[in-house]
Amino acid sequence: MKKYLLLICLASFTLFMPNKGAAQFLMDMVDTTKDAGKGLLSIYKKYDHLKIGGYIQPQFQLAAEKGIKNFEGGDFGTQVSNRFMLRRSRVRIDYVHFGQTKDPGVQIVFQFDANERGFTVRDVWGRVFDNKTKLFSFTTGMFARPFGHEVNYSSSDRESPERGRMSQLLMKSERDLGAMISFDPRRNIRGLNKVKLDLAIFNGQGINATGDFDNSKDLVIRLSSKPIKLSQETQLTFGASTLQGGLMQNTKYKYYTGALNGLKTTLVDSSTQNLWADAPRKYYGADIQVKIKNKVGFSEFRAEIAGGQQSASANNSETPVTLLSGTDGLHVRNFNGAYFYYVQTLFSIKHQLVIKYDWYDPNTNVAGKEIGAQGSNFSAANIKYTTLGMGYVNYMSENIKLVVYYAKVWNETTQLIGYSKDVNDNVLTLRVQFRF
Questions:
Q1: Chain segment 254-281, per-residue pLDDT in tens
Q2: Tally of structural domains, the chain
Q3: Do 201 and 311 lie in a common domain?
Q4: Do 30 and 125 have their domain in common?
Q5: Quick check: pTM over 0.90?
Q6: Is the pLDDT reported for residue 347 higher than 90?
C-alpha cells in the first residue's frame, strides 16, 4: 500500500513540476525495474507534454463619477465610483501528443475563467497537424477568431488592461464556435516560410450566445507575416483580415442611415423580403507591428485599422446574441475604428511605458449634433468615442506584473440627453497580475 501511495505522490509532483529538467531528475531517482517505478514511468511518458498554466488579475479601479459606463472592465454600479474586482482568473491546460517522428500530431486546449461574476469557459479546442507535408493544421472547437492582432493578443501579455472599444464591440469575448484550417509551413519552402494563412468559419454570435439561432455563418480570413528582420535591431510583422457574415432578420424591418428632407435620419425598409433574410456583417482590417531593440530593451509600435458594415440593435452596436423581439429590427451601420500602441522600455526590461490611442465610430454616416436632432431617431449607439490611455508596467519577476493605467475617454457632442457634452467617464486602473 505504501509503495502505491508513494507512486501517486511522485506522479502528482512530476506532473506539476514547473521545470522539465527537474521532472527528469526526479525520474532518474526512480527504480523503473520494479512495478511501482514502471507505473510512474508510464505516467511520466503519457503526460510529459501536458502543461498547466494560468494567471489572476486582481485590480482596484477609480472612476471619475459614480455609475459610469465604460470599456475598462465593465460598467460601474449606480452608486459606485471605486471598486476592487478580479478582472480575470484563468487556468489553461495544454496537451500535445508527439508521434514516433517527434512531430506534433494533436494539440488539445482547455481554458477556464473564474471570478466574482461567475465561471465561464474560454477555450475548448483541438488541433490536428499535417505531418506529411508539414504545411497545414486543422482546428475545431471554441477558440479566438483570427481577425486582427489585438483580438488574439493574450490578456496576460497585453500592456493595456483591456482591448480597445472596437475590438470589444465587434469581437466580444474574442471567441466563437467553429473550425479553421491554417497554412503555416513547418519546413523550408522558398518564399512561404514567412507567411501564415488562416481560414475559419464560425456560428457568428460568439460564446456569449446560448446557442446558434440562424443558419448564417461567419467566414474569417487572415493573412499574416512571421517576424521579418529589417535590420539587426528592427523587426516587422503585419497582417490583413476580413470577416464575411450576417445575421438572420426575424422581422421585415431593416433600418439604415439616410436623408429625409435634408435631415439625416434613421430610415426603415419594411419589404417582406427582409423577413428571414440576412443582414450584413462585413469587416475589413489591416495591422502592423514594429519592434526596435535599444540599449535598455526595445521600442514597439502597433497599429490596426478596421471598417465595414455592422448589423446590431437600435441601442447597441454590439453583435446581438439573441433574436430581436417584437417589431424591432436590425440596424445596418457603416463603421470604422483603429488603435495605436507605443511601448517603450525604461531603464531596464522590467519597466515599460505604454501609450495607447484608439477610436471607434459605430456609424460613419452621422456625426456630432446630427445625433439627437429632432426627427433623426439616432440613439447613443451611433456616438463616436476616442480613448487615450497612458500607463506604467513593472515586471517584478516572471510571475508578477504591476500595471498603473489611466484611460481618458471622449465622446462626440450630440443633441441627445446626457451626451450634450463630454461625459466624465475616465478610469484609473491599478492591477497586480500573478502568473504561473
A1: 999 999 988 999 999 999 999 999 999 9
A2: 2
A3: yes
A4: no
A5: no
A6: no
In the chain, % of residues over pLDDT 70: 88
Cell readout for 135 is: 504545411
In sequence order, which residues have a C-beta less than 8 Å from that of residue 313 and are 6 or more positions away?
320, 324, 328, 330, 331, 381
Residue that has been written with the C-alpha cell 445596418 in this structure: 332
Give the domain CATH number at 159. Answer: 2.40.160.10
Average pLDDT estimate for 42-49: 58
Nearest to 105 by CA among 141, 134, 145: 134
Least confident segment among 133-137, 191-195, 311-315, 390-394: 191-195
Distance separating alpha carbons of residues 233 and 64, to the nearest angstrom: 41
Same domain, 34 and 56: no
Q: Which residues of 1-33 are buried (b: 16+ CB within 10 A; e: fewer)?
A: eeeeeebeebbeebeeeeeeeebeeebeebeee
Phi-psi region of 4 (alpha: psi -120 to 50; beta: other; left: phi over 0): alpha
CA angle 363-367-369, nearest 5°?
Answer: 140
Same-domain status, 21 and 150: no
Give the span between the Cα atoms of 333 and 279, in whole angstroms: 11
Q: Euclidean distance between the first and final Cα of the chain, in Å?
A: 33
Under DSSP, the state recorded for 69 is: -
Domain of residue 173: give its range.
49-435
